[in-house]
Input
Amino acid sequence: MDRRETVRSYLERWYATKLDAGQMRASTAAAYRGHLDRYLLPHLGPLQLHELQGRHIEGMFRAIRARDGVARPVGPTTERRILATLRSAIRDAVRRGDLPHDHTAHVTLRSSEPRRVRPWTPEQFWRFVGLLEGQDEHTAAGRLLPLVLVAAGTGLRLGEVTGLRWADVDLDGGWLVAAQQAQQVGNVVTYVRPKTRAGEDRRVPLGASTVDVLRSWRARQSAARLAWGGAWQDSGLVFTAPDGQPLMPFSTSRSFSRLVAAHGMPHMTFHGLRHLYITVLLTSGAPMAVVSKLAGHSSIQLTVNTYGHLLDEAAVDAVQGADVFMARPRAIPGISPGISL
Output
């Protein structure tokens, strides 16, 4: 190891090596590049690599937080992601013997409260659906409706629903398989394996209403294919543009958000449809392990941390109901005062 090498030089070399080896998804490469350019290189770049210690890294985060008033705030989750990028690079150097220690291992970051999701209620969701049903099916709103219904009925992520293929849907059997997801970086969309290993090729059961939506959409798509003739772009995807071309996930998300705002609905992103699906499952009594599997979460702990508060609230309601049921009765003929049933 060249003891004169700076953190900047090493991180640029590490990133280029990762990129050339094809070891990163496009979205991961973009996230790493952003962390390097916005945080790691400006704050740590001039240091010599062998001098880098935990105090330098914690100093970087203090400096970032000090700019919260003049720059876009960086929350605890983003801090952990920035540190994870640096840790990946440093651990590669330790494995090769270029560094004796991984000083990122002992860096202390701000703690964050577990995220507690608050999606729409089913009533709010159906109100929004009713508003979309009044739109012409050839408009963006009308074409978005079946996609919204399927997302809420399956819990698929935006990338999974825009990357869904007809080959992965069994309408007769009432299943679909989340085999790939659309991933957009800039204006380029690629199709990759789902987000987590637990999410790969997971079978998602389809309710009867979701099957009906997909059958109706397939008929509409078939009619469009005939109308477009040779100009039809056969992508094999379930949800497409009018000419068969793939949907852009970012554009789909923006269209959803614009419609939510235009109709005066409470704020919710497209991802909130997934939260709604999981919330309904849990509050309907589905076991946490089953919900975690259907959602394709990397661990049941992730499901518990994100949605466990819903069960806490249900438990409070249940105890209050039991308390009413078990309340001491008032005067009942034939029963002495002070004696309860």
Q: What stands out?
A: The beta strands are 169-170, 175-178, 181-185, 188-192, 202-205. Residues 122-268 form a domain with the hpI Integrase; Chain A fold (CATH 1.10.443.10). The CA atoms of residues 8 and 41 lie 6 Å apart. The radius of gyration is 26 Å.
